């Protein structure tokens, strides 16, 4: 099979932990200062040591991120980072709304995502009320509604810090009848050597803005899908260090549904957020297949979302020998494996780099799935997924297992 087309990236990446790092003053998804743990060789550690290091890193880095942005971010009820002082609610009835206002909550705005027939209300919290306590209180005041913080989602495989790539990918003319692939990530930079129609839209301050992570993910997806595909890239980060919010992802899913994206790749991880959950479920009902990375918090970590949501195709990463990456998540939700190490797109000036992480395995599965499912058609979903299962090479225990899912897809991609 043909390899994945080359894309401009910065210097070589070490094993990725996939947790929020401390942004540099420049901000944005690519403005991440990489902590010491990112330089550890996870492949040389014992499984117990990997689990300990990742658990400690996750707590330290989440705490550090919230502390750095304490004017804009706080922990929610499940200790996940979210925008400070804001709650989101779906299914809000009139009487519930009145009770919330009487208790001191203020309606900031009400937004309709028309493509998904989804409406949510944004509430400001009473002065001085912590977010976690407010979530519980508002849920009691509005028992018929679904209450969520505006959580932040982070890439499940990073790249070294780099200046913005500058120019966005130019819209090109794809071949007739090509696959329609959606991407929720950073913006996408130039994609030399790929024949694809690229359309981008921003859902954050300064977006769309080309980013290294989104560009790499886009190149891998399009290379695996083959020539003539169309890429619809939703940038949920832009230049905002606290981008990647649940509300931005929900809006992005609405736009991608309206663009008739058949397969949507989300190489991001976060908590099980009610608004994101509802947006994904409605996009699925309209025929979208969602592919997501399982994350790099290690085998002992709880399942990451949206990969763990029902109906989402969760993808893990393997090395060149077909062994699961030690940092990859595990669980019954794992659907497929794909190469996640030693992927070697080219950098500018003829240089080459390697990238690693489940972020980069997921788009390989999304690209191959798009070959089987090029346009939304709910009646063809089962056939397409069964076709991909038929392509998978069984790894680990016989049959589907919580480490490799149905097996390895696109095993020779990205090399």
> How many individual domains?
2
So what's the CATH class of the largest domain?
A: Alpha Beta
Overall body shape: globular
Strand content: 15-25%
What structural class is derived from the secondary structure elements? alpha/beta
Number of helices: 8
Major sheet strand order: 10-11-9-12-14-15-16
Output the helix-strand order: EEHEEHEEHEEEEHEHEEHEEEHH
Low-pLDDT runs of 5+ residues are 1-39, 160-164, 346-352
Overall mean pLDDT: 84
Radius of gyration: 20 Å
Number of beta-strand segments: 16
**Describe the biggest sheet?**
7 strands, parallel
> How far is it from the N-terminal to the C-terminal residue, by CA?
11 Å
Fourth CATH level, the homologous superfamily of the largest domain: Peptidase S8/S53 domain
What do we call the CATH topology of the largest domain? Rossmann fold
InterPro entries: Peptidase_S8/S53_dom, Peptidase_S8/S53_dom_sf, Peptidase_S8_Ser-AS, Peptidase_S8_subtilisin-like
Keywords: Hydrolase, Protease, Serine protease
Active site: 185, 213, 359
Domain Peptidase S8/S53: 180-407
Describe the model.
This is Peptidase S8/S53 domain-containing protein. It holds the Pfam family Peptidase_S8. The protein is of the alpha/beta class and 415 residues long. The chain folds into two domains: 1-72 and 152-415, Rossmann fold, CATH 3.40.50.200; 81-146, Alpha-Beta Plaits. 26% of the residues lie in helices and 20% in strands. It starts with 21 loop residues before the first strand and ends in a 24-residue tail after the last helix.
């Amino acid at each position: 099979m043909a390899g994945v087309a080359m894309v401009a990236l910065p210097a070589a990446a070490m094993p990725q932990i996939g947790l929020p790092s401390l942004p540099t003053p420049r901000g944005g998804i690519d403005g991440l200062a990489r902590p010491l743990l990112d330089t550890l060789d996870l492949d040389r550690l014992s499984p117990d040591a990997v689990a300990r290091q990742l658990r400690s890193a996750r707590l330290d880095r989440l705490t550090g991120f919230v502390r750095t942005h304490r004017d804009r971010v706080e922990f929610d009820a499940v200790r996940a980072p979210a925008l400070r002082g804001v709650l989101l609610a779906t299914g809000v009835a009139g009487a519930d709304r009145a009770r919330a206002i009487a208790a001191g909550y203020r309606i900031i705005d009400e937004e309709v995502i028309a493509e998904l027939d989804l409406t949510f209300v944004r509430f400001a919290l009473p002065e001085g009320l912590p977010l976690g306590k407010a979530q519980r209180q508002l849920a009691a005041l509005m028992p018929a509604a679904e209450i969520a913080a505006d959580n932040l989602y982070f890439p499940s495989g990073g790249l070294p810090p780099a200046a913005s790539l500058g120019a966005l990918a130019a819209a090109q003319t794809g071949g007739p009848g090509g696959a329609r692939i959606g991407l929720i990530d950073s913006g996408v930079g130039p994609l030399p050597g790929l024949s694809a129609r690229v359309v981008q839209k921003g859902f954050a301050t300064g977006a769309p803005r080309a980013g290294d992570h989104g560009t790499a993910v886009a190149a891998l997806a399009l290379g695996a899908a083959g020539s003539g595909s169309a890429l619809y890239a939703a940038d949920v980060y832009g230049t905002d260090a606290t981008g990647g919010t649940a509300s931005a992802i929900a809006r992005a899913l609405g736009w991608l549904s309206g663009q008739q994206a058949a397969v949507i790749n989300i190489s991001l991880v976060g908590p099980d957020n009610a608004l994101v959950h509802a947006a994904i479920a409605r996009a699925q009902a309209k025929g979208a297949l969602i592919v997501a990375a399982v994350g790099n918090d290690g085998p002992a970590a709880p399942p990451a979302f949206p990969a763990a949501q029902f109906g989402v195709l969760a993808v893990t990463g393997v090395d060149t020998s077909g062994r699961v990456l030690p940092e990859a998540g595990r669980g019954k939700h794992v659907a497929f494996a794909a190469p996640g190490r030693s992927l070697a797109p080219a950098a500018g000036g003829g240089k080459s780099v390697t990238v690693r992480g489940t972020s980069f395995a997921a788009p390989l599965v999304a690209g191959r799935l798009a070959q089987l499912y090029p346009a939304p058609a709910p009646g063809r979903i089962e056939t397409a997924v069964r076709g991909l299962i038929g392509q998978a090479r069984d790894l680990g225990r016989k049959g589907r297992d919580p480490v490799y899912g149905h097996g390895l897809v696109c095993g020779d991609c990205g090399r």
